[in-house]
TrEMBL record:
<feature type="binding site">
    <location>
        <position position="32"/>
    </location>
    <ligand>
        <name>AMP</name>
    </ligand>
</feature>
<keyword id="KW-0808">Transferase</keyword>
<keyword id="KW-0963">Cytoplasm</keyword>
<feature type="binding site">
    <location>
        <position position="134"/>
    </location>
    <ligand>
        <name>AMP</name>
    </ligand>
</feature>
<feature type="binding site">
    <location>
        <position position="37"/>
    </location>
    <ligand>
        <name>AMP</name>
    </ligand>
</feature>
<comment type="similarity">
    <text>Belongs to the adenylate kinase family.</text>
</comment>
<feature type="binding site">
    <location>
        <begin position="86"/>
        <end position="89"/>
    </location>
    <ligand>
        <name>AMP</name>
    </ligand>
</feature>
<comment type="pathway">
    <text>Purine metabolism; AMP biosynthesis via salvage pathway; AMP from ADP: step 1/1.</text>
</comment>
<comment type="subunit">
    <text>Monomer.</text>
</comment>
<protein>
    <recommendedName>
        <fullName>Adenylate kinase</fullName>
        <ecNumber>2.7.4.3</ecNumber>
    </recommendedName>
</protein>
<comment type="function">
    <text>Catalyzes the reversible transfer of the terminal phosphate group between ATP and AMP. Plays an important role in cellular energy homeostasis and in adenine nucleotide metabolism.</text>
</comment>
<keyword id="KW-0418">Kinase</keyword>
<feature type="binding site">
    <location>
        <begin position="58"/>
        <end position="60"/>
    </location>
    <ligand>
        <name>AMP</name>
    </ligand>
</feature>
<dbReference type="InterPro" id="IPR027417">
    <property type="entry name" value="P-loop_NTPase"/>
</dbReference>
<feature type="binding site">
    <location>
        <position position="174"/>
    </location>
    <ligand>
        <name>ATP</name>
    </ligand>
</feature>
<dbReference type="Pfam" id="PF00406">
    <property type="entry name" value="ADK"/>
</dbReference>
<keyword id="KW-0545">Nucleotide biosynthesis</keyword>
Length: 190
């Protein structure tokens, strides 16, 4: 089984690369951002709760995210493995993920981090905001908040996997296919 954490700041291209990876490797995509947006669209209580945080660019509380991921993992059968996209975003989430996977006889194969400079991230998110209909993509201040939250709360997660010898960073600037090839090489080495 291949279980990959695709890591990087907002706008790094995790969603784009995930789509290609699912197609090539037949993995199950688990994007916490997508799951929250689905709840939001369906108007569930979880969606309403998450919206308050998401719209401002803040993180949804760990326990809410962890329960949602646990639910998704235990309700997925016969998977070849998962691509975790946008999760774990805090060290507490990373620790919880290790426990849940171990309980299901699984483990993380590795983390692949997409490295993109801040200025390019901001440009990409603003461009995406023109069509994405996401409140958190539309406003400069919210974009800045998300990047700050990433630096303060999420970046330590890279260290967590580095300490386990599972961290690999890739240049996230360039052609989509070129970046995909580099990610594929790392995956094929697991
Ligand atoms: P991006 O990476 O482009 O910011 P995502 O779709 O991954 O977008 O996440 C959108 C928002 O959803 C985040 O800003 C946050 O509010 C919430 N969210 C997603 N994943 C998590 C998570 N693992 N922990 C806490 N909040 C999350």
């Amino acid at each position: 089984m291949l279980n990959i954490v695709l890591f990087g700041p907002p706008g790094a291209g995790k969603g784009t690369q995930s789509e290609k990876l699912i197609e090539k490797y037949g993995l199950t995509h688990l994007s916490t951002g997508d799951l929250f947006r689905k709840h939001l669209g369906e108007g569930t209580d979880l969606g309403k709760l998450a919206k308050k945080y998401m719209d401002e660019g803040h993180l949804v509380p760990d326990q809410v995210v962890i329960s949602m991921v646990e639910d998704k993992i235990s309700n997925t059968e016969g998977s070849k493995g998962f691509i975790f996209d946008g999760f774990p975003r805090t060290t507490a989430q990373a620790e919880a993920l290790d426990v849940m996977l171990a309980n299901n006889g699984m483990k993380i194969s590795g983390m692949i981090a997409l490295d993109v400079p801040e200025e390019i991230l901001k440009e990409r998110i603003k461009e995406r905001g023109k069509t994405s209909n996401r409140a958190d993509d539309q406003d400069e201040e919210k974009i800045n908040t998300r990047i700050k939250v990433y630096l303060d709360e999420t970046l330590p997660v890279a260290k967590y996997y580095e300490n386990q010898g599972k961290y690999k960073s890739i240049n996230g600037v360039g052609g989509i296919d070129e970046i995909f090839m580099e990610i594929s090489e790392v995956l094929d080495s697991y």
